[in-house]
Predict the structure.
Amino acid sequence: MMSKEERLASEGRVKILRFYPSMKELYIVVGRMNEYVVNLDPPFCTCEDFFFKLTQKKEKKCVHIKALEIALRDKSCEVFILNDEEMDQIFKYLVLDLLRK
């Protein structure tokens, strides 16, 4: 039986937004309820589970961070190529979306 993070990675729910020419990348994991912004170094995720695990010092990685690690390892991420000019608009959308939660 597959773990949640293996299922997220294998179902293609890990997305990379790659901006050119800067080559900056933004990682998004599509969960059951929302889309989450994820980072590996330092580990970070916009999900509530990450926040509570971090503040309670239980675990440093949520299922979305683990899914990103698996998808990068297996090269199963869906990659979207965007221009650097689009970066500001993407970040504004993500911040507004986070504030609505």
Remarks:
- The chain has one domain: 4-100.
- The chain has four helices and five strands.
- The two ends are 32 Å apart (CA to CA).
